[in-house]
Structures are given as C-alpha cells and as structure tokens.
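pls read this protein.

:::
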Amino acid sequence: EFIKPLMAEKGFELEISTFNDYVIPNTAVEDGSLDANYFQHIAYLNNFNQENGTHLVAVIPVHFEPMGVFKGRTESLDALPDGATIGVPNDPSNEARALLLLETLGLIELDPEAGVNATKLSITKNEKNLEIVEVEAAQLPRMLPDFDLAVINGNYAIAGGLSIKDALLTEGAASLGAQTYGNIVAVKAGNEENAGIKKLVELLKSDKVKQYINDTYDGAVIPVE
C-alpha cells in the first residue's frame, strides 16, 4: 500500500490482493492471474516448485523478520546456569535459525556443514549442557517464563507483547537467516524483465521503503541489504 501511489507516479496501477493461505498466491502467479507475489522466502518457493511443478522464480529479497534470543528465568547470559533450558521453534527452518543464533552467542557449536539444515543433532559442542526444547513457534512467548532463554520469531514476539529490541541478540541483516529467509518478490519464470515488475522491485528496494520499514516496524522487520 505504501508504494501504490509511487507506482502510480511512474505510470503503473498497482492492484493488491491479500490471501490467508500460502498456496493460492503461488498458483495465481503460475496461471497468470497475478503478476507477482510477495510473502515467501526462497526455501519455501523452491520446495513449492518441486512439489507442484510450478515455474516460479525469486526476483529479489526485500525484508526479513529477525529472530531474537529473549530472557526468561535467567536475566543475562553471564547468569546462565549449567543445564539451562532454551526454547526454540520446532519447525525445521526456524529451529535451524535459532540454533545458528545460539551459536553466534557462543552457547553451542554446530557442525559447519549443517547450515540452515541444522538440528539438535548438529550440535558438536555444548559446554553448559544446555537442554534445547522444541516448541511450536507461536507458543514460545507464552512459555517464556518456563525457560531460561527462548529464541522467538519477531512476529510472534510482537504478538506476545515482546519487543524485538529487548532481545539479547537478534539476527542481523547480513546473517545466514536473513539471506535464506528474507521475503522475496516472486514471478513466473520469463517475467522477470516485465516493466511493471522492474519498477515494483526498484521501489521496494528504494531508500523510501527502507525508511518506511524501519520507522513502522521498530526492528521487527528489517530491510535485506
């Protein structure tokens, strides 16, 4: 909505459709009902193409929603006891992001080959004998008092009354999580050079939009560099 008048200034009428599922936005781009969509990351798009025989391609990543490490029973990293419990999301992609963030904090070490496919089995060093507890991502804010620390998605943190700025550490704009799970503009293969798509991408990556994101979402949404 923010760039709709900006598109109009360039001679393009931007029609916006919203959906409450993750399938129709892709099938509609595939069949030509929509020119582009903007809701998914590249890992999801690649998997969708493989499972559905579609021909969607990523044009450019625009933003990502960082995960943060939040304090529960323990007030600081220095006070983290041996055997502490840490809540992480139980879905594969977000669990890997959470583990990578814990590695950045120096709490664990992971098999370097694991990358964004890391699981608890990828932990090669855990000097504090931390117990990693897998929980449905949306439940983590509510369960935060049950853990010493928890790694929570930015959107669920906000919904749970938390501020991403209160996190002990968040994913940076250049992190593996940001590069892998940034939300992308997707089109059907062959439409990447469409004039309207090129203008859409130009505006979404503009300084005006970056400023809008930073001003509006208070760190819970970050422009991808």
Remarks:
- The chain has a mean pLDDT of 93.
